[in-house]
Each structure stands twice: as structure tokens, then as C-alpha cells.
Amino acid sequence: xxxxxxxxxxxxxxxxxxxxxxxxxxxxxxxxxxxxxxxxxxxxxxxxxxxxxxxxxxxxxxxxxxxxxxxxxxxxxxxxxxxxxxxxxxxxxxxxxxxxxxxxxxxxxxxxxxxxxxxxxxxxxxxxxxxxxxxxxxxxxxxxxxxxxxxxxxxxxxxxxxxxxxxxxxxxxxxxxxxxxxxxxxxxxxxxxxxxxxxxxxxxxxxxxxxxxxxxxxxxxxxxxxxxxxxxxxxxxxxxxxx
Length: 243
Fold this sequence. Notes:
By secondary structure, the chain is mainly alpha-helical. The chain is built from ten helices and six strands; from the N terminus they run H-H-H-H-H-E-H-H-E-E-H-E-H-H-E-E.
């Protein structure tokens, strides 16, 4: 009987120790969270002071603005998330990105018939800059990317897609499948592909080459040059060229 008593007492003692460890662990975690919260609040305060001091540089210099945005993102601050609030009042960059998003949409829609809704981000930037005029605030590719991200909640099909080493802006809802992406990557150097060189480079059957190219033509992404006899028919990627 005495042994059983010792065993029960030991189990009870272990249970109390576990509870104490849990309480200590909970208290430690709570303190760490509080320290983190205080640290983040201090960082945000410093960030606000920095933004106030360098407001003109943030608005004027696209590279400075890009680094500032990335610094904000690291602590979960999104200056362009709304046109209202502290950051919009301080910097005015909320309105800047939404206005830029409208201009991006206007250019993308205007060029959609020619490009099939897929345009090189460098070409889009050039066309938007022409629309904005010489005296407008300078923009960067990073500004365009952030503006397009701001449009995503609208579900309008705008997105950034990578094709080889190019960044392309897509302005129609579509899935750029793997075969499409391979054709666009192959066309980067010369600007066009043929069914013959596509089959050779990708080891595709002729039927697959023609099916993918026909689909790209129907999407408006490729233009066909059939005046190349005796050379093969060429499929040109419209979005790779200046408008």
C-alpha cells in the first residue's frame, strides 16, 4: 500500500511540475510577444520619421521609392494599400499608385487588339510615360508591378508573368500554360518561331507544334507571316515589339 501511495504522489508531483512549466512557457511567450510588439511599434515610429524626412525623395525618385516600399513590406506596412490614412496623407503615394493603375489599364486595353493582352513591361512603361507626359512624376518597373498588384482584388485579369528573362503584363484572364511559355521563351531572340524550329528545339511532334501555334494566333499573341516561301511560315510575337 505504501508503494502505491508513493507512486500516486509522484504522478501528482509530475503533473504539477508540467503545469508550472506550461505556465512559465506561456508567460515567457507572452513577454516575447510583448517585446516584439514594442519593437515593431518603435520601428514603425522610426519609419514614419524617416518617411517625413525623405518625403520628397520618396515621391520623386523611383529607386528610392522602391527601396522604401520593400523596407515597409518587411514589417507589414503597405503605404499603397489605401488612398486614405496616415501614409496617403503623408506621402500621397496611395493616390499615385491608383492613378498609375488606371493609366496601365488604359494603355493595356488600347494595345490589346495588337498584343493579344500580353505586353512586355518595358514597352508598357514606355507607353505609360508617353501618356503621362514629360512633366509627370518619374515611374519605374517596380511602380508598375505594385500598381498591378493593387488592382488584383478587382479580379480584372491583370497580372505579371515571366517569360524567360522578360516580365510581361497580362491584361486578359487566361492561364499562360507551359507550352505557351516555351514558345514565347524560344521567340525571345528573333521575335518569331516556326513550327519547324519549335519541333526541333522542344522535341515536339508536328501536330503539337501546330496546335500550340494556332492557339496563340487565336489568342492574338502571335501574328502569322505566310509570305516567307520557300522558308517556313513564321509566327511573330506581337508583344515583343514597340508599338
